[in-house]
Structure prediction request, 738 residues.
Amino acid sequence: MADDHLTYEDSGVDYDRIDPLKVLAQRAARATGVHLERDGAREVAASRGESAYVVDIGDAYLASITECLGTKALVADAMREASGRTWYDHIAQDTIATAVNDLVTVGARPLSIHAYWAAGSSDWFDDVERMNDLVDGWKAACDVLGVAWGGGETPCLTGVVEERAIDLAASCVGIIRPKSRLTLGEDLAAGDAIVLLESSGIHANGLTLARKLSERLPEGYATVMPGGRTYGEALLDPTVLYPPVTEAAFEAGIGLRYIANITGHGWRKIMRHPGLFTYRISEVPPVPEVLKFMMDETRQTAEEAYGSLNMGAGFALFVRPEDGDAAVACAESMGVRAWVAGVVEDGPRQVVIEPLDVTLAEESLALRD
Amino acid sequence: MADDHLTYEDSGVDYDRIDPLKVLAQRAARATGVHLERDGAREVAASRGESAYVVDIGDAYLASITECLGTKALVADAMREASGRTWYDHIAQDTIATAVNDLVTVGARPLSIHAYWAAGSSDWFDDVERMNDLVDGWKAACDVLGVAWGGGETPCLTGVVEERAIDLAASCVGIIRPKSRLTLGEDLAAGDAIVLLESSGIHANGLTLARKLSERLPEGYATVMPGGRTYGEALLDPTVLYPPVTEAAFEAGIGLRYIANITGHGWRKIMRHPGLFTYRISEVPPVPEVLKFMMDETRQTAEEAYGSLNMGAGFALFVRPEDGDAAVACAESMGVRAWVAGVVEDGPRQVVIEPLDVTLAEESLALRD
Prediction:
């Protein structure tokens, strides 16, 4: 492997050190579910490990989630001067997408969103254009989603958040009604079709790697890719909002067996379901130029790239065998390209990407976060 | 005023620069409420400006909130070595308290909590004792509250969060059922009793001032206060969890007209309700030593101190005139000292603290955040 090989593991996030906390927290959290039983509510225990927490309140389920943007805003900040724009309208959509794209995987319709915008100093608020873009982008995403922006926190956390940075997160509450919409994967079966939905680019995962790569490029984010766009600009394409697709699919009566948001760990998220299944992919969506560029420049193998980045597929629907084409039609009616890309089989837990001769095997990574 | 006079405004948080963003965001957020109307849900518009956002889902209301701890964890970090303990069990309770104490002011019962723990580097996770204390304290608070810990985010945000720090927040979902529990203050009237509930100390507001003061004290957090405890240790007394009191009050049929969590801006939060009322206080709860110490050492007047810190009263219930004593009994049955401390009157919006000869007048500060 060449010296300039760069993987996600090289880029600085050390999951081995964070995982013990996650395990401790998950164990402690699990023990609190019983509290709900005394009050006419009930935990849906099968939702633990899924992307959103689900509570049965009688005639409906509630789903809730809190998600963090990560470090993507640092790319926008680095691009601010050279590009003459703030990109925070895109960053706002990215932040909301991290929450709602997870929330809808359990069958929920998002109702309300809270913003969490923690700045490192009062200076952050002096860039009025950036502030306006953040608000406008946040509202625009809520409008697309048909979600109420319920409120939020805009603290100034000097000493906690880096002086010129902002920590962005979103929490979201959704409702699952009728209750039959609950989608936790209990019915997933061999023969089900795997429908992949296009991504717009890197979305909000892999940014630590992307930032590391920019440091290696002589022109950094200003590097012009073969198609003519700069690397930095392409990184900032906003994350696709998938809830309109899941809403359309539920309304169309598509038999949704399971839903996975393809985020960290890339296509390994396709095997997020805990069952013993092999996911055989026969059609690979086109790769956004920025992801192809990253794969090439970091000298990653296809196995490494598909195992850590979305590579053009940002979301997966697992549907009844006969519903693949209808699911694709639903997605495309909402402006999102989609493909019946493969099939679920009985077998060892792995993703087999036949056109690339790549197999992503189950391993210890915490795929169910 | 002496040279060593130090107020909240001096301590570094410049609200004048943050407020424009809040105003922009609140205006944009308000315009998204209509989205709910198409789906059998409905925004409770009167909840905008209150401490939690409320949605009518038919046979119940949902309430949701996201709240940030602020900078209190920096005090725990500073005390780590000298005291030989991490204090993160207390910090966990503080973080949860910021969310649930706000959530219950609208009449909600908290159902589930999500953790948001964003560390500045993987190194944060190497202090196993601190990690354990954070998890144990979080779970213990959930147990006291009877709330389900639904999940959370534990990202590592190098470049966004300061290298040795952690940004802690909590989001909470609650239910208001029966719907008659909704408490938005519409019935608040002259003659209602003001019941103040004890605080345990500084809680999670005023920590920037507290940290600034520690820099001025020759022995910093190790300064021994007259009663024998150190300043740092006393600052870390965990925030009182008030939801058991509000639950008991609803169960006892207390006529709750309005509820206010006394946080930033201290006793000015007593006039949080938007109506034209004067809040006349005739009994002042004992002041926790750490707050008395801060007031003395910063040379603040009573008006400054009561206008920025909780000064011994962390939560206020506004109840029917005849229910004051019953509300006190409810609180004390849950181990929280309480006082029928005053009365609501028609008049200009102000808090009159008669025993101290202090009047806190309405002003431009964003009291309704």
Summary: Chain A touches chain B through 92 residues (CB under 8 Å). The two ends of chain A are 31 Å apart (CA to CA).
